[in-house]
């Protein structure tokens, strides 16, 4: 860095005040060795022309024309890769210590003779013109639900002009998540802008005959909200820059709120959402330009669309259905029936006709499954030979305590006896209290006893919870006589 006249004058003034050379140099922003050079004599501007010659030999001078030619031919070539290539071509000529010198040489070449770099043009956002939506991973926040890690994403929606922001926790970048996140934002605002802008996510778009087109569900959502969909260019995240850049800021703000809160654990997903909404509302109250946005937007008059998609499925002989490439169990009474499934972002609701038959937690990933032991245990007890090689056998161990109980039975009893005892215990847990059975299994294990069915029943009582006795009072029927038309007419006279 060149030393300026102003720095030298500051140096001399500080020195005149009695400061040491080191103190004066620090105040002037220069090294102490440079300060000694300029304590007297001419100023930098009076010392003649700037030196343009090298003080040492350029180690790359002989090969530089060929190196530069390779850079021109392949502008994306990195300096380190090119340096290692020439180390192989010229063994012993370019030691590793010359790498930094070579990187500076390449950097200078790119700045003076390299290809043109892409120019980004800052945009002036107009109030109420568009909402931008993007998904961002939130695992870094370390949120837990009931002490269990909650790996999730946030569907973030931003008004670029005022920086108003809303976020909805979700499990994937699905259409259901996009629909829920966007609708949460507009219903929080109570107003709708002209455009909605998103990137080429599979939730909103797909390729058709070489062109990007909007998915039917996304297009329907836009029509319902009377918004015009708008896409960023392929690979042009900067066009969605307001929401992309704000994702980091949002996570930093949430991190500070967690530190103030003292912990990151919530009793349920709903509790986490409620807390998040409170934080966002507090932050959004500080958006001074939000009033301008709302004045330029259309008041929201549409009703909320259901945040689910409907599929039909046939219940197989294993009391399971397939939905979105995953397997789910349902009550066995539905085997052979054709059911309608509402696929929400976090759950599935199974309907037969207009009646809901089951609600199951949604899983993700091709081949993933969510099989409930409660749905199959009744028939598994009747067919204990199917237990060992059941494809979803792990689902028949509700907790590690149940698994340990079966392993202890398996180590001491015959295969049939171990499996039958365990399956009867599991059925007992379904008919009574899973918590009580789990506690009984723990007691037996600590005492060194096997979890035989009879011992578990002895510790937990009857197979079914006792039905409470309700005392029904005597009803005086004569009081209903006052509801007749004659009695009402008599009362009004």
Mean residue pLDDT = 88
* Biggest sheet: strand arrangement: 5-4-1-7-10
Count of individual beta strands: 19
Task: List the domain count as a whole number.
Answer: 5
Assign the CATH architecture of the largest domain.
2-Layer Sandwich
Overall spatial form:
elongated
| CATH homology superfamily name of the largest domain | Ribonuclease H-like superfamily/Ribonuclease H
Number of H- or I-type helical stretches? 17
User: Biggest sheet, open or closed, and with what strands and sense?
Assistant: 5 strands, mixed
Which fold name fills CATH's third level, the topology of the largest domain? Nucleotidyltransferase, domain 5
State the name of the first-level CATH class of the largest domain: Alpha Beta
Q: How far from one another are the termini?
A: 106 Å
Query: What low-confidence regions span 5 or more consecutive residues with pLDDT below 50?
Result: 234-241
Strand content: 15-25%
**Share of helix among residues?**
40-55%
Radius of gyration of CA atoms, rounded to a whole number: 36 Å
Structural class: alpha+beta
Structure, described:
The strands form six sheets. A five-stranded mixed beta sheet has the order 5-4-1-7-10, sandwiched between helices. A four-stranded antiparallel beta sheet has the order 13-16-17-18, with no helix packed on it. Helix 12 (373-382) packs across helix 14 and helix 15 crosses helix 16. The protein contains 17 helices and 19 strands. The relative contact order is 0.06. Helix content is 41%, strand content 17%.
């Amino acid at each position: 860095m060149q030393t300026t006249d102003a720095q030298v004058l500051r140096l001399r003034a500080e020195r005149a005040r009695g400061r040491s050379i080191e103190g004066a140099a620090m105040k002037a922003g220069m090294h102490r060795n440079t300060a000694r050079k300029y304590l007297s004599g001419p100023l930098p501007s009076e010392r003649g022309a700037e030196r343009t010659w090298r003080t040492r030999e350029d180690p790359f001078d002989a090969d530089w024309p060929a190196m530069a030619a390779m850079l021109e031919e392949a502008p994306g070539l990195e300096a380190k890769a090119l340096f290692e290539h020439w180390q192989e071509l010229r063994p012993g000529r370019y030691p590793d210590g010359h790498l930094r010198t070579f990187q500076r040489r390449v950097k200078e070449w790119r700045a003076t003779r390299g290809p043109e770099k892409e120019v980004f043009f800052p945009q002036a956002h107009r109030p109420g013109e568009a909402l931008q939506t993007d998904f961002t991973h939130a695992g870094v926040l370390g949120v837990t639900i009931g002490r269990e890690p909650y790996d999730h994403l946030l569907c973030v929606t931003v008004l670029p002009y005022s920086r108003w922001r809303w976020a909805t926790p979700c499990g994937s970048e699905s259409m259901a998540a996009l629909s829920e996140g966007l609708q949460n934002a507009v219903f929080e605002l109570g107003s709708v802008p002209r455009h909605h802008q998103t990137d080429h996510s599979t939730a909103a778009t797909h390729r058709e005959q070489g062109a990007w087109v909007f998915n039917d569900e996304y297009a329907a959502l836009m029509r319902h909200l009377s918004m015009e969909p708008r896409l960023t260019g392929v690979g042009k995240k900067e066009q969605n820059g307001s929401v992309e850049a704000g994702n980091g800021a949002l996570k930093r703000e949430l991190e500070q709120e967690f530190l103030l809160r003292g912990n990151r654990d919530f009793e349920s997903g709903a509790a986490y959402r409620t807390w998040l909404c409170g934080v966002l509302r507090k932050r959004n109250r500080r958006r001074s330009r939000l009033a301008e946005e709302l004045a330029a937007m259309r008041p929201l008059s549409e009703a909320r669309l259901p945040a689910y998609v409907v599929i039909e499925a046939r219940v197989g002989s294993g009391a399971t259905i397939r939905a979105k490439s995953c397997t789910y169990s349902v009550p066995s009474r539905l085997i052979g029936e054709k059911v309608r499934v509402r696929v929400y972002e976090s759950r599935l609701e199974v309907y037969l006709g207009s009646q809901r038959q089951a609600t199951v937690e949604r899983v993700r990933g091709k081949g993933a499954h969510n099989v409930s032991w409660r749905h199959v245990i009744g028939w598994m007890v009747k067919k204990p030979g199917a237990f060992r090689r059941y494809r979803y056998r792990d689902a028949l161990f509700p907790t590690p305590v149940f698994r340990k109980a079966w392993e202890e039975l398996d180590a001491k009893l015959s295969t049939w006896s171990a499996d039958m005892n365990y399956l009867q215990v599991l059925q007992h847990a379904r008919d009574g209290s899973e918590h009580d059975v789990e506690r009984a299994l723990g007691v037996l294990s600590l005492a060194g006893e096997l979890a035989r069915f009879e011992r578990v029943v002895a510790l937990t009582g009857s197979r079914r919870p006792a039905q409470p006795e309700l005392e029904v009072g005597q009803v005086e029927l004569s009081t209903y006589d006052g509801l007749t038309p004659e009695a009402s007419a008599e009362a009004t006279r």
